[in-house]
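Check out one such.
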Amino acid sequence: MSAPRPCALELEFSDGVRTPAELLAPVRPDEPWLLAAGAHRTAAGTALPARSWLVTRVTPGEDGTEPRPGEPLPPPAS
C-alpha cells in the first residue's frame, strides 16, 4: 500500500486571512491527520512562520472538507 497524497486546501484564519495549506492523511488508520500551513501574514501584517496541527476531526462542509485542528505542533528543531 502506498502512502496517501496530501490534499491541498485553503485555510481561513479568524482574522479572515486565507493561505494555502495541506491536509495529510495518516499512513495507518490509528495515526492522526495533520494540517500544515506555510508562512503567511495576518490581516494586521504580522509575519507568522509555517505551522502544523494535529487534526481532531475532519468533516464534510458546505465549501468542502473542514478539518478541526487542535493545538499547534512545536516547530521542527533547526
User: Anything to note?
Assistant: The radius of gyration is 13 Å. The chain has a mean pLDDT of 85.
